[in-house]
Amino acid sequence: MEGVIAIWQRDLTKFFRDRARLFGSFTMPILFLLIFGGGLSGTMDAMMTGSMPEGAENFNYVEFVFPGIVAMTLLMTSIFSAMSVIEDKDFGYMKEILVSPISRVSIAVGKMLGAATVATIQGVLLFLLIPLLGLSYDIFALLQVIPFMFLLGCALSGLGLLFASLISSTQGFQLTVQILVMPLVFLSGALFPVNNMPAWMDFIVKINPVTYGVDVMKKIMIDVESLPSVVLDAMGLNLTVLGRQVTIFEEILFIVVFTVVLVLLATISFKRANA
Questions:
Q1: Which of 21, 93, 143, 248 is the most exposed place for a label (fewest CB within 10 A)?
Q2: How many domains does the chain have?
Q3: Domain region containing 100
Q4: 3-class SS string, the chain
Q5: pTM score, two decimals?
Q6: Where are its TM segments located (predicted)?
């Protein structure tokens, strides 16, 4: 545990000292909020309201898309934080860790927790935009979603660690991750509903961990209990797998299993790469 905490603390210290990284990480989410929330909100509100039944005229697209933007921040921060593994190899820091009595699992877990913590902090900081956007989320719902944000950050950082263990250069890592990130975002329901997709695309949606993360965050932050099922269908909040609607517990369980599997795979790959 001392090794895990030391690596965890080191990544947090690097994050708070790097102001450019803190500022730059908000660029993409804020751009998406401006483009989708500001530029397309009127069009999307009209389209979504037109497809909904009577009583759903007050649909707010920005309220729908905001949890997805937070999830996108978690995704980008968690995965790109894994690039520090490659940087540590280049600067020789990783060799110092490898000759220490710390296990490979401890290194992977420490890196995962550090990336997840940084991602969660950045996601929580986005909550400061809620009053500026004219949104009204329940404060207790926001507090409830924070632990899940950390869990989702762990899952996505595990994915980043796996790629970092397989790729030897930062340039190759950035190119690979950029190709991966956009499909994960657009096929997750973060920015628009993903129901009624073609069969092959629907398959990608259902195996995408970000899909379940976005769905849980929206169900917690948006008052879904007060919305009729037809409205939930139009918003894509009635996620079904094999014709069966999945529960929040099942979605969280999927993300937990995904996290464990990815960390184990990253550890195995890391052992082989540094044997």
A1: 143
A2: 1
A3: 2-273
A4: CHHHHHHHHHHHHHHHHCHHHHHHCCHHHHHHHHHHHHHCHHHHHHHHHHCCCCCCCCCCHHHHHHHHHHHHHHHHHHHHHCHHHHHHHHHCHHHHHHCCCCCHHHHHHHHHHHHHHHHHHHHHHHHHHCCCCCCCCCHHHHHHHHHHHHHHHHHHHHHHHHHHHHCCCHHHHHHHHHHHHHHHHHCCCCCCCCCCCCHHHHHHHHHCHHHHHHHHHHHHHCCHHHCCHHHHHHHCCCCEECCEECCHHHHHHHHHHHHHHHHHHHHHHHHHHCC
A5: 0.83
A6: 20-44, 64-86, 107-133, 139-163, 175-194, 252-270
